[in-house]
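quick one: magnesium ion bound model?
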Amino acid sequence: MWIDEAKIHVASGRGGNGLISFHRTRHNPRGTPDGGNGGRGGDVVLRATRSVATLVRFQNQIHFRAGHGGHGGPNCRRGKDGADLIVHVPVGTVVREAGTGEVLADLARDGAEVRIARGGRGGRGNKAFATSARQAPRIREFGEEGEERWLMLELRVLADVGIVGFPNVGKSSLLARVSRKRVKVAPYPFTTLSPNLGLVEVGKGSSLVMADLPGLIEGAHQGKGLGDRFLRHATRARVLLHLVDLAGVEGRDPLADHHLLRRELEAWPELRDKPEVVAGNKADLLPPERIAAEVERFRKEGIELHPISAITGRGVRELLFLVWDRLRTAPSLLPEAEAPPTRVWRLTPGEAPFKIAEEGGELVVRGPAVERLARRLDLSTEDAQEYFYHRLERLGVIAALKRRGVEAGTTVRIGEERFELAG
Ligand SMILES: Nc1nc2c(ncn2[C@@H]2O[C@H](COP(=O)(O)OP(=O)(O)OP(=O)(O)O)[C@@H](O)[C@H]2O)c(=O)[nH]1
Ligand SMILES: [Mg+2]
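yep, here:
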């Protein structure tokens, strides 16, 4: 089955914890700190590859988790880094934050990748906290949590040329004619339910990728029926090939169809101004004078109509050259680069990084830096509590509390930790 939408959950690895450890010898019974740092958690990376064509595998698997970092060991041994998890997606996958719909990445090139969830950093072991003034610290950090998020993946077929038109006009027949692609052709509407891509050789060494998009139906842009989902794929084509049925086999009028098609396209900012070529198919069913009359009807409205027959091949070569010509001048649509998504927390030095507030009769200090400090330090030792207090002084928290008139002995909460303000 061809699936072009998926919702997945990604989680990067947690960082490993730092270790408190001492290397003791007979000469140095107190020991020197040698607790190693935890390794970092693995990242989740989405990578575009040509070897995957659809998002179908994400129907069965929606959770993706990278490896956790190993804990630090004695002898200053650093924990192992968690393994990155590489998730392969088809080229042309647009990655959005599921909640907000914000585009995080547009993986339009083979090999393009985005680090969508970053592993947590490893916690430092007590070796890292040793200074000349603090030679045997019992201080360590926990590893940082990984990031997790829900993502919407959306595949947009990448083709140079997208064939668009109402059901049954012969889109698949045309693709089959000009490429080696074997596509289903049938005399009833909505035969094609997912885009087909074909490689078309235009001349020696020149080729283009053409997509046969499923038939549009009227009101497609309002989300009626099939059309809307597939118009999205047309947004990635550089040139649109509008196909109408000249013979009006379904009792349709080609010019009226063309107007309807334009109206659908006008509703899409990305489609509105795309270079287009208009072709009238099934010319083999009409006598020459009827064909000339149709061409004339279109011409009166300033539209150049190219009569073709996907069955006999008439006019098809000329049409391809014309399309090729349009392609040469059509703008490239590939995004410049895949910008990595912005991290959630970024501290700007000099900016007040915390706030003091009263919540439920309790004094609470809020701010990314202070909360991270409280979360990461293992506050089960006295050394760590002292260090914590000292860091709060350095961050200006203690002074700010005193300026507010908070008295010594008052309990203050940061994150899940509580401490008493000293005198
Ligand atoms: N006489 C004639 N019949 C054609 C021509 N092109 C296609 N047909 C016929 O028209 C019918 C529909 O052709 P398809 O190629 O399946 O049309 P489509 O636009 O892909 O249709 P959907 O996928 O259903 O939207 C088939 O019976 C084809 O054989 C043509 O140039 N001349
Ligand atoms: Mg078809």
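Residues 5-155 form a domain with the Spo0b-associated Gtp-binding Protein; Chain: A, fold (CATH 2.70.210.12).
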